[in-house]
Specification:
This is Signal recognition particle protein. Belongs to the GTP-binding SRP family. SRP54 subfamily. About 55% of the residues lie in helices and about 10% in strands. The protein has 20 helices and eight strands. Strands 3-2-4-1-5-6-7-8 form an eight-stranded mixed sheet, with helices on both faces. Helix 5 packs parallel to helix 6 and helix 16 crosses helix 18. The radius of gyration is 25 Å and the shape is flat. The C terminus is likely disordered. The structure holds guanosine-5'-diphosphate and magnesium ion (MG). The site of magnesium ion has 4 residues, from helix 5.
């Protein structure tokens, strides 16, 4: 069960106004769910004590309980230090990525690079993990995918030299940010720490990020603490927060380690990263959504000019297959369906059921893409050109049956008709009218 669900259960225990016994039940439930979610026991005890006192002071009720919980959780998540990404006054801002093997360093390096690129920054990533054979190749693939420059040197065996050379390139070629991916080990060892220290001394990074795997629970906190003691860290990035994590690590890691949580990774795809903003996360944990976060995410990704053009086309009934592919590409930039749903008030509870839904790779979308792939440019521009012989050719080329092609074409036609109707009736209002 998700932490959001158990918190809801706790809130629901309070049935009557000013009922002390029901508050006790709610507090017991809350405590149990926090502990079960891997929140540190000391943290839990402190938190529930405060929630109980605050609720009583405000007058027992579901609202006052929720408010107290919200304010205590926010307090817990607020650690002194930087939030999100902070740029140095003398570019390039150099960030050293650290963490254990498999924690998500390379993926997070790519996600951060993509995040910054979307915000119009010139980014260079450096491949300094020479421990694993495939590590450099992995970063190369990620860099190519997100179209960000990478520095690597297949003939160099010393990560310190590569980091240094990457920084020289970033300085000379006026990059805004340099992200240095490094090697990890399965457990902390002296060699790993010594190598990291050497890289750190060579490039003097503006910040050191520690990537913690949220699936490792309490261990994530322990390891982060020892990295902090041995090389110093300025921020934690919590990866895999989308997985079967119990969620509690996010609530205690910053507080326990004494370093702010800066970003959270919420999926395997490049857009699946978010700035960690305490009150927004709390709002999501409580199932209240995060409209601000959603608006920010969409505005960074959606090209307004293009969106307006598409709306115009829809209104004229000219929406074609190329427009459809554009829309799909835009959707995929938003990241996983699950991460988006969690931000919509009232829908965050649904994310469990939709956990594995992969819109882009669903069989429907794959079939549509295959079909469009077998069309001529003219056919893509003008869906009305379709006739039996063209359909036959497209079916053959795409590996779909003629029945499938017919079905998709019909769906597409209906969808554009519907969209046209809606847009002429005035967007969302039209939709509401049709549904009521
Ligand atoms: P590294 O060894 O620290 O560089 O770890 P990698 O970046 O290679 O990641 C290890 C695995 O974790 C890969 O399969 C990634 O796709 C996966 N991964 C990383 N971050 C996330 C995340 O936020 N969510 C999910 N579901 N998987 C992730
Ligand atoms: Mg790696």
């Amino acid at each position: 069960d998700s932490i959001t669900g158990s918190i809801k259960n706790a809130v629901n225990k309070i049935r009557h106004k000013d009922d002390v016994a029901s508050l006790k039940k709610a507090i017991t439930e809350l405590k149990k769910s926090l502990l079960k979610a891997d929140v540190h026991h000391k943290t839990t005890k402190e938190l529930v004590t405060n929630v109980e006192l605050e609720t009583k002071a405000a007058g027992i009720g579901q609202d006052s309980f929720l408010n107290a919980l919200k304010s205590e959780l926010t307090k817990l998540l607020t650690t002194e230090g930087n939030q999100g990404f902070v740029f140095s006054s003398t570019p390039p801002t150099t960030i050293l990525m650290t963490g254990l093997q498999g924690s998500g360093k390379t993926t997070t390096t790519g996600k951060l690079a993509n995040y910054l690129k979307t915000r119009k920054k010139k980014v260079l990533v450096a491949a300094c993990d020479l421990q694993r054979l495939a590590a450099v190749e992995q970063l190369k693939q990620i860099a190519a995918q997100i179209e960000v420059d990478i520095y690597f040197d297949d003939n160099e065996k010393d990560p310190v030299k590569i980091a240094k050379a990457a920084q020289e390139k970033a300085t000379k070629e006026l990059y805004d940010v340099l992200l240095i991916d490094t090697a990890g080990r399965l457990a902390i060892d002296e060699e790993l720490m010594a190598q990291l220290k050497n890289v750190k001394d060579a490039v003097n990074p503006d910040e050191i990020f520690y990537v913690a795997d949220s699936l490792t629970g309490h261990d994530a906190t322990k390891t982060a603490t020892s990295f902090k003691e041995q090389i110093g860290i300025d921020g934690v990035v919590l990866s895999k927060y989308d997985g079967d994590t119990k969620g509690g690590v996010a609530l205690s890691i910053a507080h326990q380690v004494g370093v702010p949580l800066r970003f959270i990774g919420i999926g395997e795809k490049m857009p699946d990263i978010e700035v960690f903003i305490p009150d927004r996360i709390v709002s999501r944990l409580l199932g209240l959504g995060d409209i601000e976060g959603l608006a920010e995410k969409t505005s960074a990704v959606i090209d307004e000019k293009k969106a307006k053009e598409v709306t115009k086309k829809i209104k004229k009934g000219q929406f074609n297959f190329n427009d459809f592919l554009d829309q799909l590409a835009m959707m995929s930039k938003l990241g996983s369906m699950k991460s988006i749903l969690g931000m919509i008030p009232g829908l965050s509870g649904m994310t469990g059921a939709l956990k594995d839904m992969d819109f882009e790779n669903s069989s429907e979308i794959r079939s549509i893409k295959a079909m469009i792939g077998s069309m001529t440019p003219k056919e893509r521009e003008n869906p009305d050109l379709m006739n039996p012989s063209r359909k036959k050719r497209i079916a053959k080329g795409s590996g779909l049956s003629e029945v499938q092609v017919n079905k998709i074409l019909k769906q597409f036609k209906n969808a554009s008709k519907m969209a046209k109707k809606l847009s002429s009736k005035g967007g969302m209002k039209g939709l509401q009218n049709m549904m009521s």
